[in-house]
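Entry: Cytochrome P450
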Amino acid sequence: MTGEEIVQGVPQGRARGCPFDPPPSLTAVRDRAPLTRMAFPDGHVGWLATGHAEVRAILGDQRFSNRYELWHYPFPGMEQFPELPPAPVGDLTGLDAPEHTRFRKLLTGKFTVRRMRLLSDRMAEVSGECLDAMEKAGPGVDLLEAYAHPVPAVMICELLGVPYSDRAAFLGHAAAISDVDLSEEERMTAYGQLQEYVASLVPAKRATPTDDLFSDLAGSDLTDEELAGLGTFLLAAGLDTTANMLALGTYALLRNPSQWAVVRDEPEAAGGAVEELMRYLSIAHTGVRAALEDVEVGGQVIRAGETVVLSVQAANRDPLKFERPDELDVRRVAVGHVGFGHGVHQCLGQQLARVEMTVALPALVRRFPGLRVVGEVSLRPEVQNIYGVRKLPVAW
Ligand code: HEM
């Protein structure tokens, strides 16, 4: 069947029994038609891509735009924004070439595999310090608060050069940006506050550069406004994502004891385990693009002006791409997953995220081999942009 069905919004409803599986109604759509028509809350009829090949093709094709103001905004609960404003200055995900290329070029050299690997030793120290503090505080802590959030927070602050004395205030704003219990307005206010704070750093970084990424960027041709915007965006993009991957990744391993044992006993399995967790959890559930011209994908024509929602979680569980897709198998070679996106907007911080997770996850598993969930786990609502954990109470 191809494109005859019109689904009403992105199918929701978590699978029963497993908090990590995509909604069965979503995978059923994928299995009927990997690219299907979808009605949006504002009445627009666009598309929903759920097959791995289709999602990857659209992500890799610049005839599809990332400019927010061209999208029909699809998520339930967000209907109050039928028209999205353009991306704030410095938010490079919301730009197309050539504006996007300018920012991307400036940043690419700063996030190389080699440079991120150099951070690996520092990462081991940071996670060791957090584990010491956790051991002192527990047993009986919230893993998100005690470990999964502080580890990437320290790393992103150090990478960008947020002074130590400012970190508590900075982290308060950063946490509010992605707090699912706050209103959209409160989150926007927090983003503004973070931006004001980053702007306040600009003169000092320009005048007396220190050894950090923000100082590096201050030496470029970016305006003060662009520098503050980009700094804010990087701080926001690198924190909530990695924190939730660490917390949700730990929870997934705890629910799959044989996989926990592999990470505990086989240090060389860590890199593959992280890749598989990225595929299996796909915490950035959904992407969106708008067609700039008529484009044929998988035998169907997406017309100029139509919005396509890309279900990353359905794509990463596509049986046409991955064998036994719903099984967490940390020994699998999960190459080709789209958990970090694909194409020109593919995650810039992916090497940093990989280093963080490859060090921090096994360090936790080995320090507390008997880690267990105690009490009720609270997960984020599935329509949230980044899926993850609100609370993960653990003891050992
Ligand atoms: C873009 C996921 C960590 C910085 C993206 C995209 C995804 C993603 C899916 C593509 C968005 C799109 O196509 O529209 C993740 C996940 C992470 C993570 C799951 C953690 C496990 C990080 C870190 C940083 C970072 C640590 C570092 C600051 C960025 C930036 C972009 C981006 C700057 C925009 C790239 C562009 O538009 O050219 N990320 N990310 N991310 N990510 Fe990450």
